[in-house]
Design brief:
heterodimer, A: alpha/beta, Nucleotidyltransferase, domain 5, 2 domains, five-stranded mixed sheet, 40% helix, globular, B: alpha+beta, Phosphorylase Kinase, domain 1, three-stranded antiparallel sheet, acyltransferase (chain A), EC 2.3.1.234 (chain A)
Chain lengths: 358, 272
């Protein structure tokens, strides 16, 4: 079976083509391409501009993907699209494209939960069977464990997502959004040394990030590090008697990462202790961060377990994960009739009935 | 993936010289609980160690460990002073510099509570009811129910005392309640005794709060815990609330808030 997956819940437009061989061989990625809408430094991506970007690119990407995969339209079994969660306007433009292809080619539609897409792709790539999943991206932050046909949310953010916190701090510092604000923060953080005091907000299994963002933004303002025209060379720290000087931009990025990642590792560890699992799978855009992977690795090692993570091809939003999760659902008989092929900004991970797992 | 058997981190200092050495009881995500002795070999004590977390930045790690262990100890000390049934604090070290490599972990030494965890008491009771398979007469059945009701009221009473003292437990489950009783060794198939004081343990997530919302959530967590672990006993949960009312004057407001907390659906949908 072959499926096309269309993803566009945020600023990435992804098209992927997935093959599940009929003889039971492992699934194959035939094509996985992406085009990202990059906003200028100091700005986020607005829904209307992002939707315009997706509309302009979706046909080109589908054509390119079919060419790359060497498949013709007849070979395709179903068209999978992101039903949610995500930004309304970008989701809609991709859903319209999926409907159009479905009517044009006479193929069935499969609406996919974005979070489940990430989880299923992570499981496929890493081969980890029943991990505790940490899903961290620009729009979502959830600790998930599978139990009786649902991906259950053990802990999550109470306000903004962890990636959103990083992205917005990148905006404060006017760090480039190319290739991704979080990536540039990670590179800058490698030069940081001094840990500044930031709030640490874990509430039971849940986390909160908005207060930390406000605190670190406040520090940037206090030390005059925000805004345009600042780079790392211009501010050299002047250490005081205790060796603590005025923090640099790098120090703030470093402290922000250390604090919020500790919170994520802590809640993940609690979930592992609770369900008795030894494996962790990190998915979502923030999952590319090597410091987060490293911290999670140390925690898992101390528990006698291991951590699984994927690289940017599969961590960052992509079309192939939608095709993968869609195809799993399709093979159990799941279809999305045209009249139900809507999309929604709010779509809980545990709303999906996972028929394809025991 | 390494399959090495798990070795707990080395014990912090005075406990490396304890004979017999402390025995590990449970390992949570946050802390290890040991049984050890205090001052003389006849006085058992509970030792809670918070090992340092190597994944965290050392400064952040020290700050969090110190904050949490002190928070726990402060809550316990306050509750002992208010006469609530909780283990007394015997000693603590929040720096945790006593280990062989200087980071054995912060620790808290507490009074040992002899008795059965309430979860086990209920499990045995449910097993007993199941095993008797309806062969109990009406009178015996009523006596059994009366026992459960009594224990439930005891639980409500201690939770009321806790809230009266201005402390929120944060993790009220039947695993964190001990029935202080001499009758520890009941054979299987016998109905467990349910007399004795109920003692609250594990204040790792506790805090001081005077908001009715926090108190209502505390009760709600307990109610949910009964629903998921002791379905047979859940129908007597009303008794917990009765006991709570008797021991805490501000109960009416909290119970009203509890209604709202119950009515709340699942968490609001999360986007961006």
């Amino acid at each position: 079976m072959i499926a096309i997956g269309l993803e566009g819940s945020a600023n990435k437009l992804g098209v992927g083509i997935m093959l599940h061989p009929d003889n039971g061989n492992p699934p194959q990625v035939l094509a996985n391409i992406r085009h990202t809408y990059v906003s200028p430094p100091g700005e986020g991506f607005l829904p209307k501009d992002t939707a315009r970007h997706h509309r302009a690119w979706v046909v080109k990407l589908v054509k390119k993907a079919l060419k790359e995969a060497h498949v013709s339209v007849q070979d395709v079994d179903c068209i999978c699209f992101t039903k949610g969660p995500g930004m309304g306007a970008p989701l809609q433009s991709v859903a319209v494209a999926a409907r159009m292809l479905s009517l044009l080619w006479g193929k069935e539609l499969v609406g996919v939960n974005h979070c489940v897409g990430h989880i299923e792709m992570g499981r496929l790539i890493t081969g980890s069977t029943n991990p505790v999943v940490l899903y961290v991206s620009g729009g979502n932050t959830q600790v998930i464990a599978y139990s009786s046909q649902r991906y259950r949310i053990f802990g999550e953010t109470l306000d903004i997502a962890v990636g959103n916190c990083l992205d917005r701090f990148a905006r404060t510092l006017h760090i480039s959004n190319d290739p991704a604000p979080g990536y540039n923060i990670e590179q800058l953080a490698k030069k940081g040394k001094q840990l500044v005091d930031l709030p640490y907000t874990v509430k039971g299994m849940d986390c909160s990030f908005s207060g930390i963002l406000a605190a670190v933004d406040g520090l940037a303002t206090t030390y005059g590090l925000g805004g345009e025209g600042k780079d790392d060379e211009t501010d050299t720290p002047i250490p005081d008697a205790d060796g603590n000087g005025k923090p640099t931009r790098a120090d703030l990025c470093f402290s922000l990462q250390e604090t919020i990642f500790s919170m994520l590792v802590e809640t993940t560890e609690r979930a592992m202790a609770h369900v008795g699992s030894k494996e962790v799978l990190i998915v979502g855009g923030v999952g590319c961060n090597e410091r987060l992977q490293e911290m999670m690795g140390i925690m898992a090692r101390d528990r006698g377990g291991s951590v699984h993570a994927t690289d940017e091809r599969f961590c960052i939003d992509n079309g192939i994960m939608i095709a993968q999760a869609g195809l799993l659902a399709y093979s159990t008989g799941f279809r999305t009739p045209l009249k139900d092929s809507t999309c929604t900004q709010r779509f809980r991970t545990d709303d999906v009935f996972v028929k394809w797992r025991d | 993936m390494s399959q090495d058997p798990y070795t707990p981190p080395p014990l912090p200092k005075p406990f490396t010289n304890t004979t017999p050495p402390p025995t590990l009881l449970t390992q949570g995500a946050e802390a290890h609980l040991y049984k050890t002795i205090h001052l003389n070999t006849n006085t058992p004590a509970a030792l809670k160690i918070r090992p340092s977390k190597p994944y965290r930045h050392p400064i952040l790690d020290r700050r969090l460990t110190r904050q949490r262990i002190l928070q726990e100890a402060r809550c316990l000390v306050k509750l002992v002073r208010e006469g609530v049934n909780v283990p007394a604090v015997l000693a603590l070290d929040w720096e945790g510099q006593g280990g062989e490599n200087g980071n054995g972990g912060a620790w808290l030494l507490m009074e040992w509570i002899e008795g059965l965890v309430v979860r086990v008491v209920f499990e045995r009771w449910e097993a007993f009811i199941k095993a008797s398979g309806g062969s109990l007469g009406e009178k015996e059945l009523r006596r059994e129910e009366e026992k459960v009701r009594g224990l439930m009221r005891g639980i409500g009473g201690v939770v009321g005392g806790l809230h009266k003292a201005g402390v929120i437990h944060g993790d009220l489950t039947t695993s964190n309640l001990i029935l202080r009783t001499g009758d520890v060794d009941i054979k299987d198939g016998e109905s467990p005794a349910m007399v004795g004081d109920v003692v609250l343990i594990d204040f790792g997530l506790a805090g001081q709060s005077s908001s009715e919302e926090d108190r209502a959530v505390d009760l709600y967590v307990l109610e949910r815990a009964f629903g998921s672990t002791h379905p047979q006993a859940e129908k007597f949960f009303e008794e917990v609330l009765e006991g709570y009312k008797d021991s805490y004057k501000g109960a009416a407001v909290t119970l009203k808030r509890l209604q709202d907390v119950r009515m709340r659906g699942r968490k609001r949908s999360m986007i961006g």
